[in-house]
UniProtKB/TrEMBL annotation:
Name used for this protein in its record: Carbohydrate ABC transporter permease
A GO cellular component entry from the record: plasma membrane
Entry membrane topology: Multi-pass membrane protein
Organismal lineage: Bacteria, Bacillati, Bacillota, Bacilli, Bacillales
Keyword Repressor: no
Biological source species: Paenibacillus albicereus
Length: 279
């Protein structure tokens, strides 16, 4: 075996071990979801349930668990994530376009450093002021309270800014010769070219909103308004503290939408990383 092949084999083995370590909690979660509470609490390290059961999934999705409307929580998470992601893509792309292509924008050179500097501010510092602001507006325990905090982000502006800045000027000049205005340049030329970047940003944004835990936990007060992450947390500290099978079953259901979205958008995700690296 040559040195290069030996190195490849070592790297492949290392990647396999890392993947196995990363997948182990997911496999354990899925396995526990099919166990009854007695088997889940037995402490045995059995990845395959001895008596598989669908009762945990049936009771959770069927609404048989007291005061835990799991399907409503999932619907809340999906709707809030979808609406928030759409608004983020619109606002961030327009801001990035203005910073990258509109040379006559006032304070253009000052705004970008301010956006980048905002990335260094920990979210925990803005949590209390944001809560007080939404409480003063009477928006706590409403959908706007779950959607509005995530409707724009400096990361998305910076990501799209880099792409728009590297867009060939020759295409823009050709469009202007044909009578394309600024809005048409944004909507008809730049946005279709930025689809892989937009899909990547959309995946990150949706996962961030869908998986958010702290803000939905404090911004909602009624069971019907909770998202799936806050709902499962309330289950884990409430009547189902020892019901590991039910908790893992609902956690598996909660993870499915994010996993499916990532799988469906994987090609665009890889294409965006590759194109950004080449540029």
């Amino acid at each position: 075996m040559t040195t290069s092949k030996r190195n490849q084999a070592i790297l492949l083995l290392l990647a396999t071990l890392i993947a196995a370590v990363m997948a182990l909690p997911l496999v354990w979660m899925l396995s526990t979801g099919f166990k009854n509470d007695f088997e889940a609490l037995s402490g045995r390290m059995d990845f395959l349930p001895r008596k598989p059961t669908l009762d945990n999934f049936r009771q959770g999705l069927g609404g048989e668990l007291m005061n835990t409307p799991v399907l409503r929580w999932i619907a809340n998470s999906l709707s809030v994530g979808a609406i928030g992601t759409a608004i983020v893509l619109l606002i961030d792309s327009m801001a990035a376009f203005a910073l990258a292509r509109l040379t006559d924008l006032p304070l253009r050179r000052l705004l970008l450093p301010m956006f980048i500097a905002s990335l260094m501010i920990p979210g925990v510092l803005t949590f209390l002021p944001m809560y007080m602001e939404f409480n003063a507006l009477g928006l706590i325990n409403t959908y706007p309270a779950l959607i509005l905090p995530a409707t724009a982000g400096a990361f998305g502006v910076f990501l799209l800014y880099q792409f728009f800045l590297s867009f060939p000027k020759e295409i823009e000049e050709a469009g202007r010769i044909d009578g394309v205005n600024k809005w048409q340049l944004y909507a008809r030329i730049l946005m279709p070219s930025a689809v892989p970047i937009l899909v990547t940003l959309g995946i990150f944004t949706f996962m961030g909103i869908y998986n958010d835990f702290v803000w939905p936990l404090y911004a909602t007060t009624s069971p019907e308004m909770r998202t799936i992450t806050a709902g499962i947390a309330m289950m884990a500290t409430g009547s189902y503290t020892q019901s590991y099978g039910k908790l893992m079953a609902m956690t598996t259901v909660a993870a499915l939408p994010v996993v499916l979205i990532f799988i469906l958008g994987q090609k665009s995700f890889v294409r965006a990383i590759t194109s950004s690296g080449v540029k």
